[in-house]
Amino acid sequence: MKNTNRCRVLLIDPDAYWIKFALDTLKRRGISAQGTTDLDKIGRAFRLIHGPQLTLVNLEFAENSPDQLRRLAQSGDRHVVVLFPTSLTPYEMSRVFKLGVYDCVDKPYDAQSLVRLVESLVKEICSHNQNTVASLTNSCLPVP
Amino acid sequence: MASEGRILMVEDQREWQVELSDLLQEYPYTMKVAESLQKASDLLSHHVYDLVLLDLRLKDWQEGNFEGWELMDTLNMCRREQGTQVIVVSAYGEARHVREGFKKYHIADYIDKRRLDPQEFQKSVADAIKQAYEERGEILDHK
Prior knowledge:
The structure holds 2 protein chains of 2 kinds.
Chain A: E1 8-12, H1 16-28, E2 33-36, H2 39-45, E3 53-58, H3 59-64, H4 66-74, E4 78-84, H5 90-97, E5 103-106, H6 111-128, H7 133-140
Helix pairs in contact in A: 6-7
Chain B: E1 6-10, H1 14-24, E2 30-34, H2 37-46, E3 51-54, H3 72-82, E4 85-90, H4 95-105, E5 109-112, H5 118-135
Parallel strand pairs in B: 1-2, 1-3, 3-4, 4-5
């Protein structure tokens, strides 16, 4: 299947242990994902990839690299979701959304929450991308 | 000076009506105020606005009242048809309102009254009005 028919799941988080946990969890569920602790690397690596992408980014990057995150969120068919490990005030959440991100959610620390989050987000992206809906559901999400 | 922005302020408290109006008085905007949901609905059904400044708690004495939120479906329709933008201005909003506002209703901004920055507010209003013009395919003539 061509790359354009797949929804790429990308994880960007400074915590290498969380990245490993998340990748292992998603792999067990049959969801293909890639992860990095470096926002720069992911930007370069995926600039040339076409098609829908779900990118989960730690809040720390949103706060430290707002311009870079804005570019990431506004380029191509990419849906950036910011994961926040602590509770946010309405003001803080507003600032994050104004960077152009698709959503802002609690960072999942257990396997069940992570899988549920990724699956529901991919389904939402599928419904946003009418043209690729069939291929997305077929290629990304295993039938429960 | 010709108006370069039609604003509807949905706000029940007199002091906030004055405060927000004062912050925008130097700008070429025209402003209408609705103190209630009913009045806001009436005005929206008869007039086109570039921007709605929406307070969430329109009955300030009622804790947990987020009546302003009931206007969001109407405002969403106004946005689709006329490019109307929405800035929520509230002292009582919760993070879930901000999330739903941006994600579901595509609000232009959420401003917390408890930490209102005049310049940030003025810029947010100007950006939202510019966006309304752009969504209608019109050009805003900056003087």
